[in-house]
């Protein structure tokens, strides 16, 4: 598997040609103004400290307020209690503060923030407010598009609190971290556009890492994926997340994503 991931990464970097639609990271570009996006995110990861798999479902709704501002709300459902239980929710906003455009390229920068609450038990050192921890995250993201080449990078600060009402954050663990991501993609099909109804097939690779600020522990993951854009409105993502390195306790670092999304454009003027 590791050899495959290295080859996959090399292949992407040599000829990147992609849209700004990544699977586990968000680019600096926003959804179109007045549009409504509905996504059903699913993941199944192999447990490290016990037998079985961790399954999460995350319904999301995204709203484009204007060209520079978007908001999103997410819900967390998992089988950690051996049945599907709603554990919390998240509220996210992103503001695009820099935009430069050329004939065949553009550059975007945006600031983002997220607050989540969660009532599940705290079972790992990794801080992850998308589905595991109560807390907040704030950061910046930059995305460069040249012709059909897309590269995106982000850095953020993440802080965890108690998972109320029953689970206090462990005093022996670091409750804040620095996150960093780097994403590449490539458009595989079509070779030439004739209309917006053509199905797009994108391959991409994303690197996702974290360092605990108080303990110095860190991890780095690679996420290769394939993505289908249908009729410029529907989207299907299939991805595999693999741990490249980790010095911290993580309950389920390796597994698969399946995201289903549909966008309604011009819902409001």
Automatic annotation (TrEMBL):
Signal peptide span: 1-18
Name this polypeptide is given: DUF3078 domain containing protein
Keyword hit for Signal: yes
Keywords: Signal
Native species: Flavobacterium ranwuense
